[in-house]
Amino acid sequence: MTSSTTHDGPTMTIYDFPVGPYPTRVRIAVAEKNLQMKTRFELVDLYKGQHKTPEFIAHKNYSGTLPVLELADGTLIAECTAITQYLDTLDGAPSLTGSTPLEQGVIHMMSKRAEIELLDAISVYFHHGTPGLGPMVELYQNPEWGFRQRDKALRGMHYFDTVLQRQPFIAGEKFSMADITVIGGLVFAAIVNLDIPPECGALISWYERMKKRESVATQPAFLD
Ligand SMILES: N[C@@H](CCC(=O)N[C@@H](CS)C(=O)NCC(=O)O)C(=O)O
């Protein structure tokens, strides 16, 4: 696994699973920032457990998760929020993570809330309440914990619905990293067949709008 360092080609590598909800977050950020030409995506097959090999854990990401960003000098950045922050500020004109202290604070709060109340909860449900990545990868499962997290995610959908009843985007008036995190949550919800409750009309119509955004519509998770 190596990064390309040529001046004309990609200068960053993203260890990726293209339809994965978390990698999709970073893929959307890359597209929003028009960084596709500077980025090379390298497949790490989650279903083969390639993210849990001793080599990957030792040399790419201690947490054994995707995505991971590798810079030309070998620096590694894991965690979607950290990667998005890095990509967003590269051009000195952040558009996803806020340009004022107030925007930054609200966006980070709402993105973290989207992780806690929706995306990470669905991830736990996937790994514990469903077959997840299969018996070779899921070495420990606690179905009861999984089902509790599924119910938490459904409550989270209602919460984000109330947020979107009063404002057009998750963190206020502008599209941001917080929208991307909720999109990741709903990508994961579809994988585990967790429908948005029909009474969450504001969330449903926001998601329809998000799916029309070019950075979102072009992602493998949204292509049939
Ligand atoms: N907190 C991490 C979570 C990343 C994560 O859970 N990624 C999924 C990919 S969709 C993964 O690697 N799952 C495999 C596993 O946990 O075994 C982040 O924000 O990047």
Keywords:
single chain, 224 residues, alpha+beta, 8 helices, globular, binds glutathione
Can you characterise this structure?
By secondary structure, the chain is α+β, with helices and mostly antiparallel strands. 50% of the residues lie in helices and 8% in strands. The protein contains eight helices and four strands; from the N terminus they run βαβαββαααααα. Strands 2-1-3-4 form a four-stranded mixed beta sheet, covered by helices on one side. Helix 1 (21-32) packs antiparallel against helix 6, helix 4 packs parallel to helix 6 (177-191) and helix 5 packs across helix 7 (201-212). The radius of gyration is 17 Å and the shape is globular. The structure holds glutathione.
Mean pLDDT: 95
DSSP summary, beta strand count: 4
Strand content: 5-15%
**Strand count, sense and closure of the main sheet?**
4 strands, mixed
N→C terminal distance: 29 Å
Tally of contiguous helical segments: 8
Sheet/helix structural class: alpha+beta
User: Which ions, cofactors or small ligands are bound in this entry?
Assistant: glutathione
Helices and strands, in N-to-C order? Answer: EHEHEEHHHHHH
Poorly predicted runs are 1-6
Strand order of the largest sheet: 2-1-3-4
Helical proportion, percent range: 40-55%
Summed up:
It contains 8 helices and 4 strands, in the order E-H-E-H-E-E-H-H-H-H-H-H. The protein is of the alpha+beta class. The protein binds glutathione.
